């Protein structure tokens, strides 16, 4: 079964709560992005491991990048080439699993802890 793209009403209902927590709606594609800064590489990797288990269970996987203590995530459902309810659910799960990590905004430099020593 292919996931369906969010309707306009579904977007209006869901996206404000996600953007309030730091998710950014991308201008160049129908996707959302969030960047977390963790205390250490181990904390970042632990987060990614917990998310990976949730992704496997949901059969829905993020586009992500990790550099030391930074985890940069983009969510999009490739089956429908846009945002779906799967992305919303995974974003909420990731927010819960991130704990006390710092959310970096679009203007924050992506500087990992290894570069500040």
From TrEMBL:
A Pfam family this chain is assigned to: Pterin_4a
Top enzyme category: lyase
PANTHER family the record matches: PTERIN-4-ALPHA-CARBINOLAMINE DEHYDRATASE
NCBIfam families, per database record: PRK00823.1-3
The organism of origin for this protein: Gemmobacter denitrificans
Single GO molecular function: 4-alpha-hydroxytetrahydrobiopterin dehydratase activity
Reaction it catalyzes: (4aS,6R)-4a-hydroxy-L-erythro-5,6,7,8-tetrahydrobiopterin = (6R)-L-erythro-6,7-dihydrobiopterin + H2O
Its EC number(s): 4.2.1.96
Keywords of this entry: Lyase
InterPro entries found in the cross-reference section: PCD_sf, Pterin_deHydtase
Protein name according to UniProt: Putative pterin-4-alpha-carbinolamine dehydratase
Protein family: Belongs to the pterin-4-alpha-carbinolamine dehydratase family.
């Amino acid at each position: 079964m292919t996931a369906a793209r969010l309707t306009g009403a579904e977007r209006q209902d869901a996206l404000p709560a996600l953007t309030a927590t730091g998710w950014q709606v991308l201008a160049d594609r129908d996707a959302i992005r969030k960047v977390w800064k963790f205390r250490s590489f181990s904390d970042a990797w632990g987060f990614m491991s917990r998310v990976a288990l949730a992704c496997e269970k949901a059969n829905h996987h993020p586009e992500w990048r990790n550099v030391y203590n930074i985890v940069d995530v983009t969510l999009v459902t490739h089956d429908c080439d846009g945002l779906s309810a799967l992305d919303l659910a995974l974003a909420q799960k990731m927010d819960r699993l991130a704990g006390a990590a710092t959310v970096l905004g679009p203007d924050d430099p992506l500087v990992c802890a290894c570069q500040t020593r």
